[in-house]
UniProtKB/TrEMBL annotation:
Molecular function (Gene Ontology), one example: hydrolase activity
Recorded superkingdom: Bacteria
UniProt keyword list: Hydrolase
Name of the protein in its database record: Hydrolase
Pfam families the record matches: Isochorismatase
Residue span(s) of domain Isochorismatase-like: 9-157
PANTHER family on file: HYDROLASE, ISOCHORISMATASE DOMAIN-CONTAINING PROTEIN 2
Length: 180
């Protein structure tokens, strides 16, 4: 299946200030997420930001908050973003059939969101270098489980160039600069 920009919505899961410092390789993850978001913005992909229990876990980390403040945000207490009816409706209301998924933690909120989105009949694209957990094994097992369930794995660079399609695309040079 080809991933086309016009078919996609991006769902960011729980990249929040009090949890983020405990995630392994969080500096690389932050860099990857910022690059992904900027690239998706160049492609004009709609975005939905989810935050788990903000009173306890805090706001989205500053570097992403600055980029995503203009998009709909949904606070949740369920691990799956689909457990919040308003959040699920926002995803469905975009009319997009492909959900690009990234965030933390891979084995909890990202996994449960992916499984629920599949049950809703949506195709899920997991940006594997834009997800992480506190423990490597948890991340690895969750990615395996999602792939077995039908999620399409990719990396942010591969995805951004797939969405770009052609070196003549007006955003090609900006995408190329982002990923260097």
């Amino acid at each position: 299946m080809r991933i086309k920009a016009e078919d996609c919505v991006f769902v960011q899961v729980d990249v929040q200030e009090r949890l983020f410092p405990h995630i392994q390789n969080n500096e690389e993850l932050e860099k990857n997420l910022v690059t992904l978001v900027k690239g998706l913005q160049l492609h004009e992909i709609p975005m939905i930001v989810n935050e788990q229990y903000k009173k306890g876990i805090g706001e989205t980390i500053v570097s992403l908050k600055e980029l995503t403040d203009i998009y709909p945000h949904f606070e949740k207490t369920t691990f799956s973003c689909c457990g919040n009816e308003d959040g699920l409706c926002a995803i469905k209301d975009t009319g997009k059939k492909i959900v690009i998924l990234a965030g933390i933690e891979t084995h909890v909120c990202v996994l449960q969101t992916a499984l629920d989105l599949l049950e809703e009949g949506l195709q899920v694209v997991l940006v594997t270098d834009c997800v992480n957990s506190r423990k490597e094994k948890d991340k690895e097992m969750a990615i395996q489980r999602m792939i077995q369930a039908g999620v399409i794995p990719t990396t942010y660079e591969s995805l951004l160039f797939e969405l770009t399609v052609n070196a003549k695309n007006p955003v090609f040079k900006e995408i190329s600069k982002l990923v260097k």
